[in-house]
Design a protein that fits this description.
about 160 residues; alpha/beta; 4-stranded parallel β-sheet; 3-stranded antiparallel β-sheet; about 15% strand; globular
């Protein structure tokens, strides 16, 4: 039986759900994802961190130790995302978008523009003032056209983003 303990809003995706994990991170949701993760580690991380396992693997959820999970039945990421949002009552809020590193899930932090001069292209440095950085992988983020494109992808997929 699917678990939907409402106070858990943290997730871990199995290796088949990388795109879903990325879009959950876009929304600011704490979502772990490892490309090559075995089921034992996935279950252990779920138990240790009280994370819901998002999976397409029927056999995984039959394991005795699996407590919090949601079985994904859709094939396409927009449908998967909508199903997860509906099931857990998630809402994409503009203020939370892009608050986590899309690569490693770490919350990103605002940084002074001068500190990232050598980490971005000169054009980017000259045309943007708001920069954020992942303290773990040091990747730099800014509100460029890629942000608008991802929001457009979400809306085109039927995912509303509220102010």
């Amino acid at each position: 039986m699917e678990s939907s303990e409402s106070n858990i809003q943290r997730f871990i995706c199995d290796e088949n759900l990388g795109r879903l994990a990325r879009y959950l991170r876009v929304g600011g949701f704490d979502t772990l994802f490892e490309r090559k993760i075995d089921n034992s580690r996935l279950i252990q991380l779920s138990l240790d961190d009280r994370r819901h396992i998002l999976t397409r693997d029927h056999r995984l959820i039959e394991r005795r130790l699996v407590r919090y999970y949601y079985l994904i039945t859709d094939d396409l990421w927009p449908d998967q995302l909508k199903a997860v949002m509906d099931h857990f009552g998630l809402v994409f809020r503009m203020a939370d978008l892009f608050s986590r590193c899309l690569e490693d899930n770490t919350p990103i932090v605002s940084v002074e523009k001068e500190t990232i001069r050598d980490a971005v292209y000169p054009y980017t440095y000259a045309h943007f003032d708001d920069f954020r950085q992942c303290p773990t992988c040091r990747r730099v983020f800014w509100p460029g056209t890629h942000v608008a494109a991802m929001i457009k992808n979400l809306r085109r997929a039927g995912i509303s983003v509220i102010e």
